[in-house]
Design goal:
This protein is of the alpha+beta class. About 40% of the residues lie in helices and about 20% in strands. Strands 2-3-10-5-8-11 form a six-stranded antiparallel beta sheet. Strands 1-4-9-6-7 form a five-stranded antiparallel beta sheet, with no helix packed on it.
């Protein structure tokens, strides 16, 4: 199944979880019993938690309004990444960008899938957690993030939660997410490349041109991108184009054909098809939603 076949779904099945939410009024019904910690808003976090997911657990958001980070503690589940299902196992994390189709599910017949999550609230005109150099999936020390979430949950359940303690837990949560999304030792050659690509998305980027900017061979560039970001150079170009298209659709009245050309698509039809594959919506549907 690809993202074109996804439908909005929220099926927790017999799964159990603990969670903390930033607001009593702006949270989904399934978080009704979760304690509130308003300090999460300072980091644009809407909720955090730890889930023990069992089949038929499945959640699909066709246009998720915020970045999601999942870190697998045990078992194995599946996450929709770049239009395909990929497995996430213990010791791995996945960072999913906003304004695209996001989906996760437990695997039938597999052991329980335990993961912790951090959900952000992003807007098209504000830089999201997922930068162009952020990895999609990779190895991650999941325990500390889960402990921080559990610590914030325990503090938030107290009759009088200590703001200082909540602050420290939230700083730890944010720090672990940042550690994963912005690797401290990210390759500067890739940073230079994606700065160049992002400033000229209308250009028909070829792998040899990108490799030349990064000063590496074509094959070395592919390996670097897969290691640093979890996707190929070509997929990263598409990612940047769709992110910019989302921004233009949300903040301008430009015609869809004009936006298609601005982000590197000569054909509005090809742009629309690609856009739906990545976001679950046609450009016109995204603009009107």
């Amino acid at each position: 199944m690809d993202s074109n076949q996804l439908t909005e779904t929220h099926n927790l099945g017999g799964s159990s979880f603990l969670a903390v939410k930033a607001s009593e009024t702006d949270s989904p019904d399934w978080l009704a019993e979760a304690p509130v910690c308003g300090q999460l808003k300072q980091k644009n976090i809407t909720h955090v938690g730890v889930m023990n997911a069992v089949h038929p657990f499945r959640v699909v958001r066709l246009r998720q309004s915020g970045t999601f980070m999942f870190a697998c503690l045990s078992g194995q589940g599946q996450v929709m990444v770049d239009g395909r299902w990929v497995s996430v196992s213990a010791g791995e994390a996945c960072l999913l960008p906003p304004f695209v189709a996001n989906a996760i599910q437990a695997i039938e017949g597999a052991p329980d899938w335990k993961f912790c999550w951090v959900r952000y609230l992003d807007s098209p005109d504000r830089l999201p957690v997922v930068f162009s150099k952020s990895p999609v999936k990779g190895e991650f020390d999941t325990g500390p993030l889960a402990h921080a979430v559990e610590g914030l949950h325990a503090e938030s359940l107290r009759a009088a939660p200590a703001p200082a303690s909540c602050h420290l837990w939230i700083e730890l949560i944010q720090g672990y997410v940042t550690e994963f999304s912005e690797p401290a030792h990210g390759d500067p050659r890739l940073w230079r490349l994606w700065q160049a690509v992002g400033s000229d998305l209308a250009r028909p980027w070829a792998i040899r041109e990108m490799a030349a900017i990064a000063a590496v061979s074509n094959e070395h560039l592919r390996r670097l991108c897969l290691h640093e970001m979890g996707r190929s150079p070509g997929k990263q170009v598409i990612f940047l184009r769709i992110q910019q298209a989302c921004h233009l659709l949300a903040t301008t009245d430009d015609k869809i054909e004009t936006i298609a050309h601005a982000v590197g698509y000569e054909s509005a039809f090809t742009f629309s098809t690609t856009f739906k594959k990545w976001t679950g919506l046609r450009p016109s549907e995204f603009r009107n939603s």
